[in-house]
Structures are given as structure tokens and as C-alpha cells.
Design goal:
The structure holds two protein chains of two kinds.
Chain A: E1 2-7, E2 10-11, H1 18-34, E3 37-43, H2 54-70, E4 77-80, H3 84-87, H4 90-99, E5 103-112, E6 119-121, E7 136-139, E8 142-145, E9 153-162, E10 171-174, H5 179-188, E11 193-194, E12 204-207, E13 210-213, H6 216-220, H7 223-229, E14 232-240, H8 244-257, E15 264-269, E16 271-275, H9 287-294, H10 296-305, E17 313-317, H11 320-330, E18 335-336, H12 344-350, H13 356-364, E19 370-371, H14 373-379
Chain B: H1 2-17, E1 22-28, H2 30-33, E2 42-48, H3 55-66, E3 73-79, H4 99-104, E4 107-111, H5 123-146, H6 153-173, H7 181-191, H8 197-205, H9 216-245
Parallel strand pairs in B: 2-3
Antiparallel strand pairs in B: 1-2, 1-4
The chains are: A alpha/beta, B alpha+beta.
């Protein structure tokens, strides 16, 4: 099996902003530095695509793939959550979970809104684990869906729930200050997880002598297992610091059906916002319009400067693009360091966004610079 | 329809020149972005790795023999070693550094868009090249209005098209690159408030299907309104340039 670095499935919006590309950018750079395969996971199911035709959804994926190509980013493989090899296995995965008594049929109270975005166990609604929390607000003591504004109605019904209990799964965090959060999430996650859906569309399975519609997030959560079936051994997972919960959940679920899923390292990217510059509206721009205007290289520098590993949330000044262009005008010949593959801590140190301004300054001074493997990727000297 | 034919032509070019020799074939221009508008030509750009003295005539023969399109194929042949890394140093015909941004929006019919690997253009060269293009269109438009006699339909269509292109260039000078005529007109009217009511009405009317003006008087009126749009856009451009780049104009 090929050692692999991957990301959790990315939902592709109509317009791709730089922040969304940060995770796949990190997957690509780390895979090159570590010398392992790269897989970019894509979410093509779920509420965000509601009402769209299959061809439109496929076009979203094609657009993403094209934009990655324009940035010089090529993955060894893409993993799509609607891929038949995965969806066909969902029944088998659910059978295994029910055989292990992890998946159960229960009669429980569910709170749901009218648009279908919120369906949550009443007992779990206050849990910080409920992923729907971000879609719920409280108005006058009543819970409402933020998307359709309808009050959540309680209904008792037969539902499919999964016992959680993800404590002790081997996830090593980079940067290490996320370790406490990951460990705490694993040990505190003791709520049953609602995996069946009544309103949302989704894949169907047959369990306990009836048909169930599955939650789309639950469906892609088996991805570690599907990766292994496809010959990839996910050793490193890149997640944004807003996606640590889904990582713990999906890794936990995958290990419930396959205990020998390898220990993983989680590279957690900061949450970055681009600050406006006085001469343009870069902070509002989509990634493709930035490439149209400046080319792929300055945009890679901008992305690279977002990876300040010691920070959780940061603001990046878009003027970096102009300094990059000015520097590249003067770029003299460079030599390359002979370093081959590096370790994950070395790769993180090498890719620290704080080092980019001094790299740019070095190029501007027309110094004969020795490019690190990471700088080669940024500057586009490495064949992707 | 035309796009399908252009794709077939590019396939023939690949098999004739060899996949190893072709960096990319890019399809751009109005057929790609505004297929509902009667096109003048089909724009194709070919980037080759190796130079052969017969390349141009071979391409000409191929386009003639194949006769895949009723439209003339507007073909640019460029060799890889002619493309500067810095987009400030690139131009095609009368289109300067800004044109790289357009070419990055082209559709690769073969290979990857090589212009994504270039850097820039710088803000200064972008503005300068756009100003020069806007000047060229304005002066050409004046010449058309000076000319005596009836205008051909092609000249009228040219004036119509360039009125929108002026807006496109104006938008690009603010960092917005749009290709669809409808979006260009709407965005320009939203962004620049300098157009008079008559110019706004005229620009909105340009979105409707083309009908040739029925008399010489109407043709002249049409051309004059196109010129007003050109001059207004040029005026906005001058104002922007003088504010941002310390370029002073006489008078």
C-alpha cells in the first residue's frame, strides 16, 4: 500500500476563494516534501448541491481540478465521495458496524426543521459535538434553523444511531498545540450519532429489515477504509482548524470497522483571511481571477504565506502578491539544495509562512539563492 | 457548433505537428465567450516547442485544406522560447501586457495553458497597455465616423463590438476581467457612474439581438453613439490613470 497524505472531502462552491485551496495546497506541498502519494478528497453529495443536476455537480469538480492544475498542483489521485467503489461498499460497512453492535436501531426524539438541513437527536442538541450546532440559533427560548428560519419540531421515531466512543485513536497533531483539542474531542465524544435521515436526500442501506437513508457526512466518513481498499495508506491528513471534529469522527468510524487503519498524523492548517490592499480587491477575489490577473506563482506565494503554523487564525496582507511579482522580475539564477525527502516536522518548518517575506527579500536583492525543496515548489521550478 | 469544429481543427494540428512538439492550443475570443453573437473569426493560439521554417505555411495549408469553419481562423503561432516569464514583456498585435490576463482565460484545447506559468503583468504595465488599447479604439472609431458614405455591416458590427470591448478594458483596469458581453455592460454601468442617460440606454440596447440600422441616417446615429461610449470610456480611463499613476494630460 502507498503511504499517502490526504485531506477530508472538500465541498466545492460556485466560486472558489483562496481559503478553500489552503488545505489541498498543503496536501500537495507536503506530499512532494515527504515523498508520499497525495489524494485530494472531494465531497459531491449533500445539501450544498441540493437542486443541482448531476452534470452541474460534475462540472464543479472539473472546475476545481482545473484550478488546481492552473496553480501547478497535481495530485496522484482524487477521491470522490460519490464514487461507485465507495458507495457500493456502504451497505457492507453498515453491516459490519451493526454486527459489531455499533450501529443500532432506536426509538428516539429528533429535532428537525422544515428545510431538512437540521436533524439532530434531542438529547444531543446541546452537545458541543452536534455538528448541526452551527445551523441552529435560539430565538425566545426556541431553537430555529438558520437556513430556513423554521422552528425545530420534535418527533419521536425509529432512527439509526451509532455508538461513538472514539477515545484513544492514534492521531498525532501538527502543530502540537492542537493535540490537547484532538485528545479532548476523542475522549469526550460519547454521544450517540444520528446517522439516518428523514428529510435530507442520501444513500440508502438496508438494516434491521428496513431501508434507511444515510446522512451524507456519515457516508464519506468511511473514507479511510475506502482509501485502503484503493491501495492508499493514509498516514497524514491535512485539515483546517475548523474541521478537527469531522476528522475525529471519520477516523473513529473507519477504525470501528477496520482496527488496523494506520495511526495518522493530522496537519492542522490555520484559518486565514486575506486583507485588502490599497490597489485592488484581492481579498474579495476568487482564486481563478487571481490566477487570471497575476499567474499561478504569485498566488502560490500568497497561499504559502497563509501557513503560519504558530497561529490559529491570521490575516494575510494581499500586498504580498505585488512584492512577489517585483521580486520575480529580478529573480536571478538559483541553485537547488540537494535535500531529498524530509520528515513531517522538517516539512512544516520549511513551509512556515513567516519565512516567505525574507525569501522574497532575498530574491529582490538578486542574491544567488539556494532554493529549498519547498521554495522550488513555490517558485514553480519543480515539475508538478 | 463552431467550437466543435475548432476542436476538430486542433486535433488535426496535434496529429500533424506531433503531441511532443505542442505545448498547448488555446481557444479564445468571442466564439468561446459570446457564442450568441455573430463572430468575425475564430481565435486560436498555438504554442510550439520547436521551430521549423515551414510551420506557418503548414498551418495555413492545414486550415485551408481542412475547411472546418466558414469563419476565417485567426491564428497566432508562438514558440515557447518567445514567451517571457514576466508578462510585462509580452504582446500580441496591438494588445500589450494586459492580453496575458485574457489568454489565461482561454480554453486549452490541448495541453495546459502556458500563460498560467507566467507572472504579472505589473500594475503599471497593465494600466499602460490598456490605456494604449483604449486610445487605439477611440481614434479608429473617430476615423470611422469621419468617413463619408454608407458603412458596411462589418464596420457597424465592429463599432458595436468595440464599444463593449472598451468597457471590458475599463473594467480590467480596475481588476475585473469579464468576457460575457451582458456581464460587461451590467458591471460597467454598476461600476462607472459617468455615462449619460443616453449612453446607458444605448449600452443596454446593445444587449438585444443585432438589427442593422435601416438607413444611412440611422447608421450615422449608431456610429456616433458608439463613439460617445468610446470617448466616455477613454475619459474615465484618463481620469483613473492621472489619479493613480501621475500621468498628466494636456488641456
Amino acid at each position: 500500500m502507498k503511504p499517502t497524505i490526504m485531506c477530508l472531502p472538500i465541498t466545492i462552491p460556485a466560486e472558489i476563494k483562496p481559503g478553500l485551496v489552503l488545505t489541498p495546497f498543503t496536501v500537495w506541498t507536503m506530499s512532494k516534501l515527504l515523498g508520499v502519494s497525495s489524494v485530494c478528497s472531494i465531497n459531491l453529495t449533500g445539501m450544498k448541491y441540493a437542486g443541482m443536476r448531476a452534470a452541474e455537480i460534475t462540472n464543479r469538480y472539473r472546475m476545481f481540478e482545473r484550478i488546481m492544475g492552473r496553480l501547478g498542483i497535481k495530485f496522484d489521485s482524487y477521491w470522490l465521495d460519490n464514487d461507485q467503489s465507495h458507495t457500493i461498499s456502504l451497505q457492507e460497512y453498515c453491516d459490519q458496524l451493526s454486527d459489531n453492535h455499533c450501529l443500532k436501531q432506536k426509538n428516539l426524539e429528533v429535532l428537525a426543521c422544515s428545510c431538512g438541513a437540521v436533524e439532530v437527536l434531542k438529547d444531543a442538541v446541546t452537545s458541543k459535538w452536534a455538528t448541526e450546532r452551527k445551523l441552529i440559533r435560539e430565538v425566545g427560548g426556541q431553537l430555529q434553523c438558520k437556513l430556513c428560519d423554521s422552528p425545530l419540531k420534535s418527533e419521536r421515531d425509529q432512527v439509526l444511531v451509532m455508538d461513538s466512543g472514539f477515545n484513544g485513536n492514534p492521531i498525532k497533531a501538527f502543530p502540537s498545540f492542537y493535540q490537547k483539542e484532538i485528545d479532548a474531542l476523542q475522549s469526550e465524544y460519547n454521544q450517540p450519532v444520528l446517522v439516518s435521515r428523514k428529510r435530507k436526500p442520501g444513500r440508502k442501506v438496508r438494516l434491521f429489515e428496513r431501508e434507511w437513508t444515510l446522512d451524507t457526512d456519515f457516508c464519506w466518513s468511511f473514507l479511510f477504509h475506502s482509501f485502503r481498499n484503493a491501495g492508499f495508506d493514509p498516514e497524514v491528513v491535512v485539515v483546517s482548524n475548523r474541521s478537527i471534529k469531522p476528522l475525529v469522527l471519520s477516523y473513529g468510524i473507519s477504525r470501528k470497522i477496520c482496527g488496523d487503519v494506520s495511526p495518522i498524523s493530522a496537519v492542522v492548517t490555520p484559518f486565514a483571511r486575506i486583507k485588502n490592499s490599497p490597489v485592488s480587491n484581492i481579498h474579495k477575489a476568487s482564486i481563478s481571477s487571481l490566477i487570471d490577473r497575476y499567474g499561478g506563482t504569485p498566488v502560490r506565494f500568497l497561499l504559502g504565506s497563509c501557513l503560519k503554523w504558530e497561529q490559529k487564525d491570521l490575516v494575510v496582507d494581499s500586498s504580498l502578491i505585488f512584492w512577489t511579482m517585483k521580486a520575480l522580475e529580478k529573480a536571478s539564477d538559483s541553485t537547488e539544495s540537494t535535500t531529498s525527502n524530509v520528515s513531517l516536522p522538517e516539512a512544516l518548518a520549511m513551509s512556515d509562512g513567516n519565512a516567505i517575506p525574507s525569501f522574497i527579500a532575498g530574491i529582490r536583492r538578486s542574491e544567488k539563492i539556494v532554493l529549498t525543496p519547498y521554495q522550488k515548489l513555490l517558485i514553480g521550478k519543480e515539475k508538478s | 457548433m463552431n467550437k466543435r469544429k475548432i476542436t476538430r481543427l486542433s486535433e488535426k494540428i496535434v496529429s500533424a505537428f506531433g503531441a511532443d512538439n505542442i505545448v498547448c492550443i488555446l481557444f479564445h475570443g468571442s466564439i468561446l465567450f459570446n457564442p450568441h453573437i455573430l463572430p468575425h473569426d475564430a481565435d486560436l493560439l498555438i504554442v510550439l516547442k520547436k521551430r521549423d521554417a515551414e510551420d506557418c505555411s503548414n498551418l495555413r495549408k492545414m486550415v485551408r485544406q481542412v475547411r472546418l469553419t466558414e469563419l476565417p481562423v485567426h491564428l497566432h503561432l508562438i514558440y515557447l522560447d518567445e514567451i517571457p516569464e514576466n508578462a510585462d514583456f509580452f504582446s500580441i498585435h496591438t494588445c500589450g501586457a494586459f492580453f496575458t490576463c485574457h489568454l489565461r482565460q482561454a480554453e486549452p484545447l490541448y495541453g495546459e495553458n502556458i500563460f498560467d506559468r507566467t507572472v504579472g503583468p505589473s500594475e503599471y504595465q497593465l494600466q499602460l497597455s490598456l490605456l494604449q488599447k483604449v486610445q487605439q479604439y477611440t481614434f479608429q472609431m473617430r476615423n470611422l465616423v469621419f468617413a463619408l458614405g454608407r458603412r458596411t455591416e462589418n464596420e457597424l458590427l465592429w463599432a458595436r463590438k468595440k464599444s463593449v470591448v472598451m468597457l471590458k478594458d475599463l473594467l480590467l483596469s480596475t481588476g475585473i476581467l469579464l468576457q460575457k458581453e451582458e456581464s460587461i455592460i451590467l458591471k460597467s454601468l454598476e461600476t462607472f457612474k459617468d455615462f449619460s442617460d443616453d449612453e446607458v440606454d444605448f449600452l443596454k440596447a446593445l444587449q438585444r439581438p443585432w438589427i442593422k440600422p435601416a438607413s444611412e441616417r440611422l447608421e450615422r446615429a449608431f456610429m456616433t453613439r458608439c463613439l460617445h461610449v468610446h470617448e466616455q470610456a477613454y475619459g474615465i480611463m484618463r481620469k483613473r490613470i492621472s489619479e493613480k499613476h501621475r500621468c498628466r494630460f494636456l488641456g
